[in-house]
């Protein structure tokens, strides 16, 4: 009985050693008479998106928060405080913080994303008319004209808009109901 176990163990050991040698030996070159094996096709590499997203019309949600929102009279009515998405990732609304002073006493009002006209260019505010220069008035200096602002160089794509414009006034937003979030 003992001899039988030793014989089976020897056969098993020999089979394991043969398998190990077969796995570590180098493949032999194909003989000229044998047909050449076709190489297996290389696995398809997954498509990696271009990591340089600047200038591709993409916006960063973190940069959209804080963007100024202006009313129809081109006066600032508030800042974007939240960006609200649906389950598919589509932006449905932005909330705008209105009222208060330095964030104290302000409330968030939801505005549908489609109702905001986004612009990459700074808002143009009409400059006040220059005061007429006085002739010999006491307390006035001889009218020193200031130089016009220098033209700014074109800026790189910022991946967020400069501002948004809506059709509601600050008074309408202030009287609108505040956003409430469930679970918070």
Description:
InterPro entries: PRC-brl_dom, PRC_barrel-like_sf. Keywords: Signal. This is Sporulation protein YlmC, PRC-barrel domain family. The chain contains three helices and six strands. With 184 residues, it is of the alpha+beta class. It has a domain at 56-126 and 160-179: SH3 type barrels (Roll), CATH 2.30.30.240. It has a six-stranded mixed β-sheet. The termini are far apart.
Structural class: alpha+beta
Sequence stretches where pLDDT stays below 50 over 5 or more residues: 136-142
Largest sheet: 6 strands, mixed
Percent in strands: 15-25%
CATH topology of the domain at 56-126 and 160-179: SH3 type barrels
Give the overall shape: elongated
What strand order characterises the main sheet?
A: 4-3-2-1-6-5
Q: What is the CATH superfamily of the domain at 56-126 and 160-179?
A: PRC-barrel domain
Topology diagram in text:
Layout: H1 2-24, H2 61-64, E1 68-70, E2 76-85, E3 91-98, E4 107-112, E5 117-119, E6 163-165, H3 170-175
Parallel strand pairs: 1-6
Antiparallel strand pairs: 1-2, 2-3, 3-4, 5-6
What's the short story on this structure?
Pfam families: PRC. This is Sporulation protein YlmC, PRC-barrel domain family. With 184 residues, the chain is an alpha+beta fold.
Could you list some keywords that capture this structure?
SH3 type barrels, 3 helices, six-stranded mixed sheet, 184 residues
């Amino acid at each position: 009985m003992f001899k039988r176990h030793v014989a089976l163990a020897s056969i098993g050991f020999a089979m394991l050693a043969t398998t190990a040698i077969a796995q570590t030996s180098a493949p032999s070159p194909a003989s000229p008479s044998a047909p050449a094996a076709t190489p297996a096709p290389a696995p398809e590499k997954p498509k990696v998106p271009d990591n340089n997203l600047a200038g591709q019309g993409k916006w960063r949600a973190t940069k959209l928060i804080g963007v100024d929102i202006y009313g129809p009279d081109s006066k600032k009515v508030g800042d974007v405080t939240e960006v609200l998405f649906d389950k598919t990732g589509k932006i449905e609304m932005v909330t705008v913080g209105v009222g208060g002073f330095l964030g104290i006493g302000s409330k968030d009002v939801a505005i549908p994303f489609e109702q905001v006209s986004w612009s990459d260019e700074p808002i143009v505010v009409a400059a006040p008319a220059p005061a007429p220069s006085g002739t010999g008035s006491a307390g006035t200096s001889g009218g020193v004209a200031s130089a016009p602002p220098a033209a700014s160089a074109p800026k790189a794509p910022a991946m967020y808009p400069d501002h948004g414009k809506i059709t509601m006034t600050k008074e309408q937003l202030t009287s609108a109901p505040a956003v409430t979030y469930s679970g918070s």
